[in-house]
Amino acid sequence: MRHWSNYLYLFYSFVFLLNVLHTFWADETLYIIIGFLGMVMTAVSFPRSDRVFKILGTVLLTAGGFFYFSSDAVLSDIPRFFAGNISLLLLISMLPWMNSVVKAGRYNKLLQSLIGGGNQSLSGLYARSEVTMVSLAAFLNLSSAAVSQDLLKEKLKQMNTKMKNNFILMVTLRGYSLALLWSPLEILLATSIFITGADYLQVLPWMLVISVIGIALDSFAAKFMYRGESIPEDRTGAAPLNKRKFIQFIAALVLFLCLVVFLGNVVQLDFLFSVTIAIFPFAFVWSLLIKRRRSFMNIGWPTWRWKTNRLDNFIVLLLTLSFLTKTLNASPYLQYLQDPLIAMEGQPVFIMLFIQAAFLVMTLLGVHPIATMGIFGGVSGLLTSAFPPVTLTILLSACAIATVPSAPYGLIVTLTSVALKVNPYQIVLRNLPYSIGLGFVGIAVALFSMWIY
């Protein structure tokens, strides 16, 4: 089994190529073939996925089966129901290439330089660390949290263990989530745009506003939390900031955003597809410009192959979720989900609070925000009639991403729990007020955008 599983990336790549072909040639037969292959992917991945995803996938398939038998759908419709989220899987499979060029160019070292050494107040270190995380996590993703946590553990090693761990788990996870709000590589943002059809260029300024407000409020709270606290004698000198490399990194980030906007607005490609097809060519050209092509390929190829072979959790989650949402849309039981929203028609604030509460409660129960996003995607017609596409995108993505630091079974929380030897529910308790507060900020900004649009 181990032998053949090393070549799953070839099968997955074939399915992804068919999906790209379908983007330019929308043939119904091709779509059914993609869906059938998606069913095969699900069957292969199910026994290889983690226990929580097996349970979630089983629940989604069972619920989807119930909706299917209550609908007028026929047997030949089933493959089509599994094809809906293949494009999301393609985006996830391409992300390692961007991380690889960051590692090849050694841009992850920038994090250490920006946080810096020397004696500082704890509140000052908190603000600087959070801004650094937001600046770099857009590309570095999970590696930014891992590097910053290691650096802060060393920098704060003289501090009381409990206070040190609380400081690290708050600043790194919150900073990470604030970067996800506007990063074109973030799957939750991409999914919300996929559901609403909004223009990323119109959404971006609003997400940046939420991020800036989040930084300001969290840093302000840290001033009170750590007032009068200073870092115990710190002799860990930091390497001087390489300004040339920092400018390169920021320029690359801006150019990538411009490329995505160009593909979406000039070439008229779907946002999700624009991000997906831009990643590898951009990363490759970037590696050429910084003369790191060989290092990029040496890191990128095995990393991409390894990650693609292990897409099991995402395949089980996203394809069973696609089955559920499609069958739900075909079922008369959709009305039961619509009724609470219809009852709140003309009261956008209540609808927004309902959406925020749903994301938060489902996350605390262990359901991934993508799954909750997919459920709201099932009633997207009703939601788009209540909100402009930009407003709905802001609302869905902000409320979903706000839960990331408080997701007990989320990847970033799990990694932090292992790194700090802290119970994941302790991490949840420390970050839950932040998640609720950031959700409220997202709602406030979404309401303001509604007034404009």
Q: Helix/strand/pairing class, anyone?
A: mainly alpha
Biggest β-sheet description? none
Quick one: how many beta strands? 0
What's the helix-strand series? HHHHHHHHHHHHHHHHHHHHHHH
Shape assignment: globular
Specify the helix fraction band: over 70%
Global mean pLDDT: 86
Distance between the termini: 54 Å
In terms of DSSP E residues, the strand content is under 5%
| Poorly predicted regions | none
CA gyration radius, whole angstroms: 22 Å
How many H/I helices? 23
Short recap of the structure:
It contains 23 helices and no strands. The protein is mostly helical.
Can you give a write-up of this model?
By secondary structure, the chain is an all-alpha fold. The chain has a domain at 1-104 and 273-279 and 291-332. Helix content is 77%, strand content 0%. It has 23 helices and no strands. The chain has helices at residues 2-5, 8-24, 28-45, 51-69, 78-81, 86-104, 109-115, 122-140, 142-155, 161-180, 187-196, 200-225, 243-265, 271-289, 293-309, 312-330, 334-343, 348-364, 369-377, 380-386, 389-402, 411-420, 424-452. Helix 3 packs across helix 16, helix 18 packs antiparallel against helix 19 and helix 21 (389-402) runs antiparallel to helix 23 (424-452). The longest helix is centred in the C-terminal third of the chain and has 29 residues, at 424-452. The radius of gyration is 22 Å and the shape is globular. The relative contact order is 0.14. The mean pLDDT is 86.
